[in-house]
Amino acid sequence: MTLGLAMEGLVLDRSVDGGEFVLDQPDLSVPAGASIALLGPSGCGKSTLLDVIALILRPTRLQRLALRGRDGRLVELGHTLRHGSSDQLASWRSGLVGYVMQTGGLLPFATVGENIALPRRILGLKGDAIVQSLARRLGIVDLLNRRPDRLSVGQRQRVAVARALSHQPPLVIADEPTASLDPAIGDVTMDLLLSACQELGSTLIVSTHDHDRARRFGLVPLEFSPANGCSRFQFQAGLT
Ligand SMILES: Nc1ncnc2c1ncn2[C@@H]1O[C@H](COP(=O)(O)OP(=O)(O)OP(=O)(O)O)[C@@H](O)[C@H]1O
To answer: Which residue from 4, 10, 6, 5 is spatially nearest to 234, judged by alpha carbons?
Structure first.
């Protein structure tokens, strides 16, 4: 089985900052091209785990984090995530990951179209036909010239999904991407995430509270399981 993601020995300890939360993930492996639903109660660490995988959050300890690139090579990034510069991490992130953040994370001074095209600009990719195509599939073509502060939360969420897909990354991460959407648009959005990733052979990890939608769309569940200690959290190990 070819891996899309391999992680070992992750500890993210917020107690050092006065919190009570510890994410303790000895092992996590996801097959390349798999579509995963990260499930668990509020506060169990879904966003935290996604932020580590997306090279945003530096863990307290980490033995290994490897992500598969578009060229098929598994890139070892554990040392860079612990000790590399922000610029190094941003550079790897832009090529390897598309991230639909829970908060949208759109640039307020750029239009919707510019936001969606931004990951392509960063990578120097030519052609913006995919921006139009994604906008059409998500029903946001009429919004391309607006700024994000003139959008509803649900519209922003769809823009964030389009932006995460526009550079066709090998790993797509989505943090509750349908939380603010009505059921029909939520289904369209989940369908696009899945079909775009399947067309590209990309790995998809979606955090969600919507077990029913995850099941209907055939996402493989990766469930939170209590670890030792009342404030230690962990997700079910490898899916290979
Ligand atoms: N910046 C932060 N500083 C300190 N503690 C934090 C911070 N962000 C989150 N936490 C804590 O870390 C824990 C995990 O939070 P996280 O957001 O990963 O949970 P989640 O499973 O994604 O929750 P939800 O389903 O509500 O989005 C929680 O106990 C939360 O209070």
So the answer is: 10
SS3 call for 132: helix
Q: Which domain holds residue 51?
A: 3-235
Instruction: Report which of 50, 8, 44, 6 is spatially closest to residue 25, judged by C-alpha positions.
Output: 8
pLDDT digit string (tens) for the chain, length 240 residues = 799 999 999 999 987 777 778 888 888 999 999 999 999 888 888 999 999 999 999 999 999 999 999 999 999 999 999 999 999 999 999 999 999 998 878 999 999 999 999 999 999 998 889 999 999 999 999 999 999 999 998 899 999 999 999 999 999 999 999 988 889 989 988 999 999 899 989 999 999 999 999 999 999 999 887 665 555 677 777 676
Cα 194 to chain centroid, rounded: 13
Residue 127: both structure tokens together = 């052609």
Ligand 1: residue whose CA is nearest its atom 25: 42
Q: Whose CA is nearest to atom 18 of ligand 1?
A: 45
The answer to the question of residue 147 being in a domain is: yes
Question: Strand pairing partners for 39?
Answer: 223
47 Cα–ligand 1 center, Å? 7
In a domain, 240, yes or no: no
- pTM for the full predicted model: 0.93
Q: Which residues pair with 35 in a beta bridge?
A: 204
